[in-house]
Amino acid sequence: MRYIPIILLSTLLIGCGSGSSSTSNSEPNSETDPTNDPIATVPDSDGSTPGNEDGSEPESTPPDEQTPEQDDFASLMLTAVNHARSIEQNCGGTIMPAVPALKWNYDLEAAAFRHSSDMANGDFMDHTGSDGSTPAERVADTGYSANAWAENVAAGQNSVDDVMASWMSSAGHCQNIMSSNVTEMGASAVENADTQYGIYWTQVFANAW
């Protein structure tokens, strides 16, 4: 298996929490596009967050690590997401206003990389990992304490521009990207030529307690 020469790339066409599903609008490399299924979650009424019950404090990220200037992939993904967030978007008929820019978080990147690697190794696309892990659990396992999170996944797109175009044309994924409930993100893309789609993407968005 060959990893893309960037520590963390971005997302698979699946999202957590919105509950909607659709097919990818990207140009497929196979006869059938991967399924989209955006998921997002916000705090419960009692302030708790699914999958994060230990009450641990989030690990702080040094200011100089907030902007991944030395990581080309992270910079491309963060720039693309923040450009989308800087203007009003029509997400499948739902008008989403412009929202503040996100910061890159390496814990969220690690959660995304874990899932993209898992999908690339197992040749599947789903929010549930091969070990039964959920997006919220993968975030919590990094030590990040989230009070809101969202995940997008996708497969088969050949570039950040391609995968972002797919996500932005899908209502649920677009809404995750445009959510005002999150402040940070991480992403990853992992390649495996011996799989159906060849490349597997994951975006993770969150807001820490």
Automatic annotation (TrEMBL):
InterPro entries, A to Z: CAP_dom, CAP_sf
Record key words, sorted: Signal
Domain SCP: 80-205
Lineage: Bacteria, Pseudomonadati, Pseudomonadota, Gammaproteobacteria, Vibrionales
Protein name: CAP domain-containing protein
Signal peptide: 1-26
PROSITE patterns: PROKAR_LIPOPROTEIN
Start and end residues of each stretch annotated as Disordered: 17-69
Alphabetized Pfam families for the sequence: CAP
UniProt biased composition (Low complexity): 17-32
